[in-house]
Amino acid sequence: MYSEDILISVRNVSKCFHIYEKPADRLFEMLLRKSRSEKFWAVKNVSLQVKRGEAVAVIGRNGSGKSTLLQMVCGTLQPTAGEVILNGKVAALLELGAGFNPEYTGRENIYFSGAIYGLSAEQVSDRMHLIEEFAEIGDFIDQPVKTYSSGMFVRLAFALIVHVDADVLVIDEALAVGDVFFTQKCMRFIRDFLKRGALLFVSHDTNSVMSFCRDALWLDKGEVLFAGSAKYVCEKYLEDYYSEINGRKSEEQFKEQENELKENPLEKAGHLLFRDSRQDFVVHTNLRMEYSVELFDCNSASFGEGGGRIINVAMHDKEKNPLSWVIGGEIVTVRISAHFRQQFKKIILGFVVRNKNGQHLFGDNTCVHSLQHGWLGKNEGEVAEALFTFVMPRLPAGDYVISAALADGMQDQHVMHQWVHDALVFRSHSNSISSGLVGLPVQIELR
């Protein structure tokens, strides 16, 4: 079937670089036929497959082998072992300025790069106005690209790959330097492109990964650490991130950050909870928004240092009654209870609502409240709870989860003791009257 076409097939690919202590060692190695180098395996035995209509992400820290893997997919590096099979034209946006001659103007580089992608000069001329319109760099297109900012580099490079009739896009973190308006334009193009092509995507933004990609690959020191659904891999990546930063925190860092915040005291925010003008009408129509809520799953996957444990997460109404069914637009409270196995000096409890792809939709924690009213501490064996009250937003039909977290410290300097991925599951049974990922209560006047 067309939708099952495999456009990228990477089979047991490895890449080895030879590291020389001194430049002269290269010559000695050639003359003496004796190795004077150390082998560095940037990529080790990696396999992946991307079909038409699919997007696969590669995540990992700097130096993990992501860029090397993408360069082998694009053909700019040859693998030491394994093979890369491509079915269709590949367009790549790798490191900034790759493939551009800095002395040439933007226009000249478009003709030069277009020829590399197999376009004739006439074809490039026919598309030049579309490329200029997409890039939005004005008269700079006739200036040498060595005068460009990093943002203009991205604009020109992306505008080019959009118009070369590629079957496969390979994008390596480059969009991170673009402004928000251009980035959103690129994201819209990618969503449309995935109806007919394939995407291999590298990003440190796990929300973008979960938004675009069904599957993901986590590289660490050149090897595949985890592979599977984007949601699963990103959760593991998040767990590893917290494991590392927890090992770096110190009491001095906590105190330093708290003093900085006290120098800029937060003003108490007023809470404006108005009622959506459509609520009473919608409740009695087929547009009524309903959510079924499951019970807290104490066995849900979690990670953390274990100094405390979340023992319950529930959704309540304004009378504090547990809810198994919620009406959209009504006021609800998410209650998180935690038990402490050791002393906590500065408790942070929080939650995040995510959709089935793992995208974070909204959430909050107790940190700012504690800065306003004083930090809550607990001793071993004690219990604490946090209550978050808000108007239940309108969410498209589907499954959602609430992730809950317990930490000790400050907003940016804390020890994560437990993060429960899918603490509470709820389902939207909705014919939503809003658009987007989340619909907020709105007051409407028509005059």
TrEMBL record:
Residues 8-246 form the ABC transporter domain. This is ABC transporter ATP-binding protein. GO terms for molecular function: ATP binding. InterPro entries: AAA+_ATPase, ABC_transporter-like_ATP-bd, ABC_transporter-like_CS, ABC_transpr_TagH-like, Bact_Polysacc_Export_ATP-bd, P-loop_NTPase, Wzt_C. Belongs to the ABC transporter superfamily. It comes from the Bacteria. CDD domains: ABC_KpsT_Wzt, Wzt_C-like. SMART domains: AAA. Keywords: ATP-binding, Cell membrane, Membrane, Nucleotide-binding, Transport. The keyword Membrane applies. The lineage of its organism: Bacteria, Pseudomonadati, Pseudomonadota, Betaproteobacteria, Neisseriales.
